[in-house]
Amino acid sequence: MQIPSTPQSVPLVQPLTQPYQPLLGPLTAAASLSAFLAWNTTSVGSLALAMFIVSFIVGVWGLWAVC
Which residues contact 25 (CB under 8 A, 6 or more apart)? Predict the structure, then answer.
């Protein structure tokens, strides 16, 4: 008959070691610029609004990931 041993203790907080993403900075800058340009465009109708929303979300997410 085997008696189970106690499990090894695992730290609750893992160290923050994120891999470096070389395209994250340029993608964030391009999405932010694209969102700004789409916001100021009225000649294409609702396409500008859709482009603004998507680019804004990508830009804000990129800024969050960088900082």
Answer: 62, 66
pLDDT tens digits for 13-54? Answer: 666 666 667 888 899 999 999 988 888 887 888 888 888 899
Classify residue 18 by its DSSP letter.
Answer: P
Residue 8 has pLDDT above 70, yes or no: yes
Question: What size, in residues, is the chain?
Answer: 67
- What's the pTM? 0.63
Domain assignments of the chain as residue spans, ordered by start? 24-66
Measure Cα distances from 53 to 24, 34, 44, 63, 67 in Å: 19, 10, 15, 15, 21
- CA geometry: angle 42, 46, 51, nearest 5 deg: 90
